[in-house]
Amino acid sequence: MDFVDITKDIENLIKKEKVKNGFIIILSKHTTAAVRVNEKEKGIYKDFENFVKKLLPPKRYYYHNDLSIRTENLVCEPGASDCLNGHSHCLHLLMGATSEKVPIIEGRLAFGPFQRIFLIELDCARPREVIAQIVKEE
Amino acid sequence: MDFVDITKDIENLIKKEKVKNGFIIILSKHTTAAVRVNEKEKGIYKDFENFVKKLLPPKRYYYHNDLSIRTENLVCEPGASDCLNGHSHCLHLLMGATSEKVPIIEGRLAFGPFQRIFLIELDCARPREVIAQIVKEE
Amino acid sequence: MDFVDITKDIENLIKKEKVKNGFIIILSKHTTAAVRVNEKEKGIYKDFENFVKKLLPPKRYYYHNDLSIRTENLVCEPGASDCLNGHSHCLHLLMGATSEKVPIIEGRLAFGPFQRIFLIELDCARPREVIAQIVKEE
Question: CB contact, 8 Å: B110 with chain A?
Fold first, then answer.
């Protein structure tokens, strides 16, 4: 599991696009990578990873990983661990972390002091794509 | 638990409304039915159902199911199992799956190759209503 | 844990701003307070609190709470329990409850009969700030 803080990229985009007021949608194009808002503190990342590994152990039996019965989507996303990522799909379904939206007020994300936007890898590390869509007030 | 893939309905709506760029909000009008984005693969549905049944067993004691003390909302949604669905409410609160929003770019959902939109029934099967709201760029 | 029903405040804002059609984004400015849609029934609040206390016991070891190794964000939000809220951060990461968005149709939230908006305190009680942003159709 990997927490990538993408807040600075989002802030730079807002500056570049000269947005005063509006909002932004940030979407992960993947079913096992999550967009999430939380605090930037390394202990939290480790706590969450430990918690999740117990909740959904990767080594448990998953139908999704059973290639003796599976018939759908046998071609995986590049870098995926041979599609054997049932635990990541269950976690992503539980978390529902496909996207976040954040109001922009006076050129800034309307965040409290501890809020940051993360892309969280729920499967093995690999290239991931995130879309940011800005809606501006005119 | 039931996974209903509603992606085609959403795509047809986007075509019918001739949306080029914008985004769509998809909302479940229910507190025990979820809108979620994930992969279309039957094993995943079973894995998630198995996982969730252990996490929140329907037969455990729930205050929500205890009609000897409960005073609120004793008239249920049509088809609900006599309101005895405490496990479904806990799961829905955890998942937070009331809605999803997805950018539309060049007439298409800005999805990766494996992303699909589901309505997931967290309680007993029954008719469910979903709202889709489109915001278009002019 | 505390469930605060903020639906009336949101409805009053929609009336005051004379919104006919559009949508609203409701954002918590905190990393341990959640915005969520569910049913208003006291038993559900207790069921969820009981469930969550077992899932993420506050007294378990969390890296976030270990001030002998932690180096980041040692100044806490006012009222936070000396930053020792690793369980609340894990829960918030799992729930992903930074914001909700709801379509507004004919001057009303496009909700089903049982849906209400809550601010849910996942840590100790203290003042919390929520932002509501309205986007109107013209």
Answer: yes
Cβ atoms of B128 and B30 within 8 Å: the answer is yes
ipTM above 0.85, yes or no: yes
Identify the residue whose tokens are 């990393």.
C31
Two tokens, residue B114: 């494996």
User: Which among B120, B107, B93 has a CA at the least distance from the CA of B37?
Assistant: B120
Contacts of C25 (CB under 8 A, 6+ apart): A23, A101, A103, C99, C100, C101, C131, C132, C133, C135
Alpha-helical (H) ranges within chain B are 7-16, 42-55, 86-95
Asked if residue A131 lies in contact with residue B103, where contact means CB atoms within 8 angstroms, the answer is yes
Q: Do B73 and C39 touch (CB under 8 A)?
A: yes
Helix axes A86-95, B42-55, angle to 10 degrees: 60
Q: What is the CA radius of gyration of chain C?
A: 17
CB contact under 8 A, A62 and B47: yes
Residue with tokens 């996982």: B51
Sign of the alpha-carbon dihedral angle for A93, A99, A101, A107: positive
pLDDT tens digits, B71-92:
998 877 666 656 789 999 999 9
**Whole-angstrom Cα distance, residue B114 to residue C138?**
36
- Search chain C and give the residue with CA nearest B69: C43
Partners of C77 on chain A (C-beta within 8 Å) are: 112-114
Tell me the pLDDT tens digit for each residue of A61-93.
999 999 899 999 887 766 665 678 999 999 999
Predicted TM-score (pTM) of the model is 0.95
Mean pLDDT computed over A33-44 = 96
